[in-house]
Amino acid sequence: MPRRSESSPSAPAAPRPGRATNGSARPKKTNGVVPGKTVRKRKSAPRSKIEQGDCLTHLQALPDECVDLVFADPPFNVGFSYDIYRDRKSAEEYEDWCRQWIEQIHRVLKPNGTFWLSIGDEFAAELKVLSTREIGFHCRSWVVWYYTFGVNCTRKFTRSHAHLFHLTKDAKEFTFNAEDPEVRVPSARQLVYNDPRANPTGRLPDDTWKYGPFDPVETDPAAAEEGAQWIIRPQDMPEGFVSGENTWYFPRVAGTFKEREGFHGCQMPEQLLGRIVRVSSNEGDLVLDPFAGTGTTPAVAKKLGRKWLGYELSEDYADRAAARLKAINVGDPLNGSDAPTVSAPSTRNGRKRKAGLPKTRPG
Length: 363
Description:
The protein has nine helices and ten strands. It has helices at about 55-60, 90-110, 120-135, 190-195, 220-225, 270-280, 295-305, 315-325, 340-345, and strands at about 50, 65-70, 110-120, 140-145, 160-170, 210-215, 230, 245-250, 285-290, 305-310. Strand 2, helix 2 (about 90-110) and strand 3 (about 110-120) form a beta-alpha-beta unit. The two termini are about 35 Å apart.
């Protein structure tokens, strides 16, 4: 699996005898909550907080219909070892756990609320069916996030994508800021035909997202960033990646990227969350991430003037995410280039070995 979620799941692994789930001798209270214990129902949703503990417990404590937007990037159940959890459940256990917290998300969302779910191949189909046919969400789009820096594989093709489900509680009433200039892209009528009938504000993007120099031959980084724009047609894509109708391109936050927080291997890019937060919420709305991890969703929400709330099982991650949020101000720019092909170094002029000569080891 090339990438992992922002957090560990809400249900911790079975502890060793005499040990608490967070590794300490006894459960530690955080924000008045003992992880794993039932929380009394709140009268209103808290705002601007990272709360440590079981996300299911915290979700159950929220009042009905109090959240505007939820973004969830749960564990993918592929055996990844987190600091306090290893996510390898049986398929039945995993799906049952997902059903529980997705049901709670449906309950806490406002009638016009939106739920974005990030998930890997292994359970994408199951969770889509579960969310729509069993729980009652309406799927607006099935987006594929195409990224770079996937984990190298030797017995299969390297995976470089994850699934993003755009789900709404109501089929017709939901927030979708179609006129936001940060969301719209230029149309073919504008770029190709110079058609006077073209909408000067452009159009909404497909569920295929890629951003970068319009000229795929561009090699100068400064010129590339200055001329970067949305690429909207397959024939305009750089060689080696042909756009479909359901792929957004943003590079993963690799270890060398400046926006990398440094303590989690699967950090989501702020620019990706920026598009989702902009289009599916308004300033002042409450954005919730039940698997906050490094705090990227709350960070983007705060920068864009939204209220935010995050849950995180790991005490260490929760503390680090809270520190990250404390250093952020409303209106700060999103981290990472808004031109992903610029933020990821080009290999066009990189060093190359002579063809046919295998790499040898000393001696």
